[in-house]
Q: What sequence folds into this?
C-alpha cells in the first residue's frame, strides 16, 4: 500500500496489503527487524544527522545546458595541434565505449555494463578526470558525442545504469564509488528533466522514491536521506518526494531511533542524561521535519490518504493530539482502503489510550478490529483497554482468540506501515529498469 | 484488585498435592520467595523464620509451603528471525528439557512470538503434546516481546499451580503494540514469577524499555529519571515479580539455563498471609527478610490492587 506515495506514474508496483507469506515461509511474521546499520564507508552517518549534504545539488558531472539549442548549435573547435586532435580522438573513443555500454544495458546485459561503467569510473586520467567524468561532461557535444542530442530513452537508460552501478558499489561497501555513481545518476536525471521534461516528469520522482525505499530497506538511512534532500532541492514542491521524505524521517524517529546511536554506547556509560537528551533531541528534530514535509505533501496532493495517515501518526508522536485525531479522522472518513482505515483507527486508539480515555480508545480499537478481524495490534490494544476497564474475562477471551488463531489467517497492516513487504523495493527498481528499457 | 491475580493475590486457593486438599483464604496474598546462601537455595525454613512487611506493616504469615505445590510453567519463546538456525535448535532443546523435568501434577503451556504471538500449546500436563508443539516451532520475523509477555500473563493457568513465566528473548522489542511499562503494570497485579533468559550478543542497545520509540502507544519521556531509562524490559519484569534473569553466552547454554530456572523455582517458598493494618487498594510494597540467619531473599517488590 505504501507505494501509493511513489507517484502515479507508469511504474506500477503495488502491494495492496501485507503479503500473506513472509520470506521464511511463516506467514504471520513481518520481516526481521534490521538491528544494525549496513553503512557504506564514505556514506557513514555521523550519529546525529544522516549524511546530509553528501550529494551535490549543483549539477557538476554533466553540463545541464548541453541540450539547449544554442549550445547544440556550437560546433567542436578545430584542434590546434596534433596533441589536441589526439585528445579529441580519445574522447570520441571514450564516448563510443560509453554508448556501447548503454546499449548493452538496454539489451539486458546488466552485469557486463555495470562492470564496464565501474571500470570507466576507475580509469584515472589527468587533472582529476576519470573516463566516466569526462564522458559525462561530453554528453551532447557535437563532434564528440555521436548521439547528440540524446533522446529521452538514452537519458533514462544512463540514469538506471549508474543507479545499478551505485547499488553494486553499495553492496561491495565501496562508499566513494557508490557516491560517485549515485551523483552521476542524479545529475543525468536532472539533465533528463531539463532536456526531456515530458518523459521525466513522472520518472524523476519515481527514481528518488524508489531508490530511497531501496536504501531504507537496507538501513542505509543516511544515503537515503541525502538523496531525498537532493530531490527536494532539485524537484521543488514534488509531493511524492516530500511524502517519502516525511516517511523516512518518521522511520528515523521511530523504528530506527537508536540504530545510528549504537556506536555511541560509550556515551551511555559516561553521561547517561546527555545520551538520552541526544537521542530524544535528534528524534524530535526528525519528527519536526517529518511533520513539515508531510504537511507540504498533503497540501500539494490533498487527495493522498497515505500522506495524511503518516501526518496524523507523526502529529500523535509529537503529542499534538487534537491535530492528530482530526487528521486521522479525515483518513477514516474517506479512505476506501481497509488497511489504511485500520491503521488510522489504531493510531486514533493509541492517542486515546495513552490519555486513559478508555471508552474512546476501546471504540477506536473495535473499529479497527472490525475492519481487519484477524489483526494483532487492534486486539491487543482493545484487550488491554478492557482489562483496565475491569472487563477482564472479555480481555482474556480476546487474547486467547488472538494467540490461538491460525497464523496463515493473520493480517497486520502495521507491519508494513514503515517497512515494506519483502521484495517490494527491489520489484519497484526492477520495474523502473524495465520502464527505461522500453 | 484486578482479577488477574485472583489466584494468588486475592482469593487464595492453595493446592497441597495428592490427595488434593484445598485451603481457601479470602483476600489472602501469596508471595513466592527464594532464599539463597551463596549460590545454593536454603531449605527447611518455616513461617517463624520469615518476617514479611506489607506497606511497612509486619504481617502474620499463615502458611509456608515448599516444593509441594505443582508448577504452572508458561514457556514464552522468541522465535524471531535472529533465532533461525542453530539457536533455534538449542532453544527447542532447552524448552524440551523443561518439559522433561515436569513432575506429575505440573502443567505447562508453550507460547512463541515473533511479529505476532502464538499459543502453540495450551495448558496441559501432557508432556507429549508439549514436546510435539516444541518440535513444530519455526523462526522468522520481528520481536513482539512486550505483547508476548502481556499475553502470557493474561492467559494464566486456570488450575491453582504456582505460576512461572519463563521468557526467552535474544533482543529488545521491535514490534509490539503495547509499551513495556504497560506489561510491567500488569505484572505488578499478577502473582506469576517471571524469569528471563537472554543471549549475550552484539545487540548494544544503549537504552532500556522506557525509551520506547517503536511500540504503538508511546508516552512522553520527561518523567524518566536517573539511570532508569537504561533498564532492560526483562530485568524490570523479573525484578517486579521476584524472578531473575540469566544471560547465556551462547545458545548452547540455553538448556542449562532453562533447567536451572526450573530447579530454582522448585526451591522457592510460598508465603501466604491475609493483609492486616493496611489499606487494601493501591501499591503494596513488600519486604521479606529472614530472621536470625544469613541469606539473600528474592521476592516480588510488591503488588498492585
A:
Amino acid at each position: 500500500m505504501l507505494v501509493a506515495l511513489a507517484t502515479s506514474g507508469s511504474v506500477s508496483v503495488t502491494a495492496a496489503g501485507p503479503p500473506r507469506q513472509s520470506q521464511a515461509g511463516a506467514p504471520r511474521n513481518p520481516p526481521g527487524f534490521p538491528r544494525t546499520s549496513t553503512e557504506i564507508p564514505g556514506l557513514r552517518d555521523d550519529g546525529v544527522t544522516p549524511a546530509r549534504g553528501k550529494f551535490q545539488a549543483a549539477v557538476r558531472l554533466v553540463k545541464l545546458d548541453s541540450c539547449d539549442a544554442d549550445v547544440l548549435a556550437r560546433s567542436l573547435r578545430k584542434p590546434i595541434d596534433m596533441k589536441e586532435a589526439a585528445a579529441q580522438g580519445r574522447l570520441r573513443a571514450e564516448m563510443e565505449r560509453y554508448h556501447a555500454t548503454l546499449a548493452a544495458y538496454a539489451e539486458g546485459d546488466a552485469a557486463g555494463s555495470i562492470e564496464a561503467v565501474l571500470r570507466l569510473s576507475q580509469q584515472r586520467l589527468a587533472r582529476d578526470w576519470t573516463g566516466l567524468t569526462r564522458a559525462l561532461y561530453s554528453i551532447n557535444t557535437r563532434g564528440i558525442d555521436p548521439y547528440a542530442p540524446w533522446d529521452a530513452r538514452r537519458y533514462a537508460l544512463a540514469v538506471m545504469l549508474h543507479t545499478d552501478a551505485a547499488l553494486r558499489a553499495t553492496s561491495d561497501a565501496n562508499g566513494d564509488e557508490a557516491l560517485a555513481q549515485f551523483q552521476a545518476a542524479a545529475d543525468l536525471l536532472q539533465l533528463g528533466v531539463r532536456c526531456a521534461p515530458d518523459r521525466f516528469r513522472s520518472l524523476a520522482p519515481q527514481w528518488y522514491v524508489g531508490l530511497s525505499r531501496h536504501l531504507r530497506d537496507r538501513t542505509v538511512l543516511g544515503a537515503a536521506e541525502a538523496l531525498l534532500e537532493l530531490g527536494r532541492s532539485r524537484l521543488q514542491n514534488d509531493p511524492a518526494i516530500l511524502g517519502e521524505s516525511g516517511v523516512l524521517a518518521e522511520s528515523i524517529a521511530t523504528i530506527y531511533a537508536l540504530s545510528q546511536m549504537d556506536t555511541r554506547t560509550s556515551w551511555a556509560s559516561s553521561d547517561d542524561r546527555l545520551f538520552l537528551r541526544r537521542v530524544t533531541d535528534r528524534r524530535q528534530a526528525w519528527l519536526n521535519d517529518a511533520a513539515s514535509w508531510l504537511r507540504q505533501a498533503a497540501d500539494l496532493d490533498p487527495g493522498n490518504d497515505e500522506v495524511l495517515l503518516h501526518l496524523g501518526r507523526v502529529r500523535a508522536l509529537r503529542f499534538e493530539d487534537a491535530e492528530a485525531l482530526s487528521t486521522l479522522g479525515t483518513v477514516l472518513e474517506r479512505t476506501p482502503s481497509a488497511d489504511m482505515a485500520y491503521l488510522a483507527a489504531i493510531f486514533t486508539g493509541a492517542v486515546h489510550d495513552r490519555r486513559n480515555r478508555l471508552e474512546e480508545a476501546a471504540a477506536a480499537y473495535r473499529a479497527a478490529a472490525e475492519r481487519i478481524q484477524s489483526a494483532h495490534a487492534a486486539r491487543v490494544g482493545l484487550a488491554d483497554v478492557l482489562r483496565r476497564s475491569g472487563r477482564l474475562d472479555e480481555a482474556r477471551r480476546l487474547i486467547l482468540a488472538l494467540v490461538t488463531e491460525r497464523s496463515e489467517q493473520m493480517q497486520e497492516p502495521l507491519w508494513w506501515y514503515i517497512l515494506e513487504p519483502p521484495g517490494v523495493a527491489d520489484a519497484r527498481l526492477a520495474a523502473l529498469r524495465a520502464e527505461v528499457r522500453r | 484488585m484486578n482479577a488477574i491475580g485472583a489466584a494468588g493475590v486475592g482469593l487464595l486457593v492453595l493446592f497441597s498435592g495428592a490427595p488434593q486438599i484445598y485451603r481457601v483464604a479470602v483476600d489472602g496474598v501469596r508471595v513466592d520467595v527464594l532464599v539463597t546462601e551463596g549460590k545454593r537455595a536454603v531449605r527447611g525454613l518455616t513461617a517463624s523464620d520469615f518476617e514479611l512487611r506489607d506497606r511497612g506493616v509486619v504481617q502474620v504469615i499463615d502458611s509456608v509451603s515448599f516444593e509441594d505445590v505443582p508448577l504452572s510453567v508458561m514457556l514464552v519463546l522468541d522465535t524471531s528471525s535472529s533465532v533461525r538456525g542453530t539457536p533455534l535448535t538449542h532453544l527447542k532443546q532447552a524448552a524440551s528439557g523443561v518439559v522433561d523435568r515436569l513432575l506429575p501434577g505440573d502443567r505447562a503451556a508453550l507460547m512463541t512470538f515473533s511479529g505476532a504471538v502464538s499459543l502453540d500449546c495450551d495448558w496441559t500436563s501432557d508432556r507429549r503434546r508439549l514436546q510435539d508443539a516444541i518440535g513444530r516451532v519455526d523462526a522468522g520475523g520481528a520481536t513482539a516481546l512486550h505483547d508476548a509477555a502481556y499475553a502470557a500473563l493474561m492467559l494464566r493457568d486456570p488450575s491453582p499451580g504456582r505460576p512461572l513465566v519463563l521468557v526467552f528473548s535474544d533482543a529488545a522489542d521491535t514490534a509490539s503494540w503495547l509499551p513495556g511499562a504497560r506489561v510491567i503494570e500488569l505484572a505488578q497485579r499478577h502473582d506469576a514469577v517471571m524469569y528471563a533468559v537472554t543471549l549475550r550478543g552484539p545487540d548494544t542497545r544503549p537504552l532500556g524499555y522506557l525509551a520506547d520509540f517503536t511500540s504503538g502507544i508511546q508516552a512522553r519521556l520527561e518523567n524518566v529519571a536517573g539511570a532508569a531509562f537504561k533498564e532492560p524490559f526483562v530485568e524490570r519484569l523479573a525484578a517486579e515479580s521476584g524472578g531473575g534473569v540469566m544471560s547465556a553466552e551462547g545458545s548452547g547454554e540455553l538448556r542449562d539455563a532453562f533447567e536451572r530456572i526450573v530447579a530454582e523455582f522448585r526451591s522457592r517458598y510460598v508465603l501466604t498471609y491475609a493483609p492486616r493494618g493496611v489499606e487494601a487498594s493501591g501499591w503494596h510494597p513488600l519486604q521479606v527478610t529472614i530472621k536470625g540467619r544469613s541469606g539473600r531473599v528474592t521476592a516480588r517488590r510488591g503488588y498492585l490492587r
Residues 1-26 of chain B have pLDDT under 50 and may be disordered. Chain B has two domains: 3-67+268-304, 71-265.
